[in-house]
Amino acid sequence: MNRIDQLFKTKQQRVLNVYFTAGYPQLSDTLSIMECLEQSGADLIEVGIPFSDPVADGPTIQESNGVALENGMTLKLLLEQLKEMRRTVSVPVVLMGYINPVVQYGIEAFCEKCAEIGVDGLILPDLPMFEYLDTYKPAFDRHGIYNIFLITPQTSEVRIREIDENSNGFIYMVSSASTTGAKASISADQSDYFARVKGMNLNNPTLIGFGISNAETFDKACANANGAIIGSAFIKAISQEGEMNENIEQFISSIKN
Amino acid sequence: MKVQVDERGYYGNFGGAYIPEMLYPNVEELRENYEQIVGAAEFQEQFDGLLKDFVGRPTPLYAAERLSEQYGANIFLKREDLCHTGAHKVNNTIGQILLAQRLGKQKLIAETGAGQHGVATATVCALMGVECIVYMGEIDMARQRPNVERMRILGAEVRAAKSGSRTLKDATNEAMRHWINNPTDTHYIIGSVVGPHPYPEMVARFQSVISAEIKTQLNEKLGRTNPDYVIACVGGGSNAAGAFYHYYDEADVKLIAVEAAGKGNETGESAATTVLGKPGVLHGSKTLLMQTEDGQVVEPYSISAGLDYPGIGPVHAHLHETGRAKFYSVTDDEAMKAGVQLSRLEGIIPAIETSHALAALNQMKFNTDDVVVLNLSGRGDKDLETYIKWGKY
User: Fold this and answer.
1) Mapping DSSP to helix (H, G, I), strand (E, B) and coil, where does residue B289 land?
2) Is the pLDDT of residue A39 over 80?
3) What are A139-174's pLDDT values in tens digits?
4) In CA terms, which of A29, A149, A161, A237 is 20 to 30 Å from B111?
5) Average pLDDT score over residue span B284-304
6) What's the complex ipTM?
7) DSSP label at residue B132
8) Does some domain include residue A163?
9) Cβ atoms within 10 Å of B184's Cβ, excluding its own
10) Scanning every residue of chain A, which has its alpha carbon at the shortest distance from the alpha carbon of B196?
């Protein structure tokens, strides 16, 4: 069974998914950050594949992408770094990135490699459902890799149903019309959207991301979905001075209190 | 060969709509409505009226006698440089602002490289009394300062794109991010035949007035609608798409696209995408793209800010792949010399983008009775500082 399914089978509430950019702050931090995240209580880990033009991301993740690329991170190197991750990391792992590096690697080879090293799913925001179903899905299916779709406050109910039909793992609910890390709180409009989606009783679990930065926003998100995704705030936490593992532990415990 | 966008938004192997879900409703709204809006008689009437009275169309098709003598062919210049605001870009911004109004969008954003599209957007926003924000790379703002001030005089807000390489590609990223953050009340006027479907075809349609006029004007002058050659420069490729549009399917017309080779295609400082690029995905479409083996987008270089883009429109990638258009590339120095040459021979100082198309004449062999139409896409006023800095005139 895919580890994502396994996770949601045993835990339906307060699932914490943490994003970080591979190769940031240092090139070879990838695996140690993942290990520390698991030990600190993250339920799911989302590893960002850095890209030169991350259009869906705000300044914090743009910056981490830029630094990671300057450090020399590539998709090939990342897969090499993750080669033996299943010796020390047992939570589900999802890779998040933009489609172009994946296309250059080759979609079939990429899915095959992901399955081999124990990656459970992919989030490719600029691979829309139409193109996925038209061209890419067979490779995902052959290797048991889940494709995670996004929905936003502007996504129509009809389309949410369509996405739900074609999803596995979970649905990534973008909290507001924004790039990552843009907004610090959750407004009344967003609460309406959360309630609307909750009322649809989707087949897939939902995790809320974008603008989730602290215990308060995490709690609010968890009241409306199976859990939440934290990215920019975590990147800021590991950018701070001090011992990184301590920063990670402190940050995760501040979220989960 | 038929050059046409299919239902999925592809020209052959290139195109599509590779956009994050946050942009899906906006792009879908556009896709669903634009053909009907643009096809309506009332829209066409207003569009044509503004092109005539505000832009100054039709632009002349000018028989350049001394240039023709130089190259031993009959060369005609399509004078897009005489459009209001100094380049063809305004054809598209007029079309898109009329479209935006019909979609009920009150705010407009745009990206710009050389500033010509930014100025053309700021101009139509002033004309219609609409709020306008233009994203421009910080580096481009410095090298195209007069255009920055023109936009400001016209009442637009110019925002510096400070991310990445701080040029056109990053201005486009920032405009897309702005649109993600403001999805309901804002229309994004893309300035070239790039971006997610339906943008490439929509922009080409608004620019197709160029080749429609060439056909009529050439017929008036020579009794034939088709020249032997149509030549245009290509950055993203909007002026070329406009000049080629009504000739795509006319096999007797050779289509010549000219890219910027910067300091030379072997130097690592070039913007010649068809020479240096391979298929990839950027800014919403699959196209030819300058990139590393890892799929990171490479920063191009050209003396001309308007050609300094790491991709080309998907239609041009298709024209290249199928061999329907022939591509040349021209270095900074060759382009600058060609710009000065046209100034001396015909009394027209061209934009440096256009000078690349002119320089390609040196690489071509003509018969004396060949009819050549070169799209003179813009005038050189904005480039004076670059001409002065180059200095060899």
Assistant:
1) strand
2) yes
3) 999 999 999 999 999 999 999 999 999 999 999 999
4) A149
5) 96
6) 0.95
7) E
8) yes
9) 14
10) A126
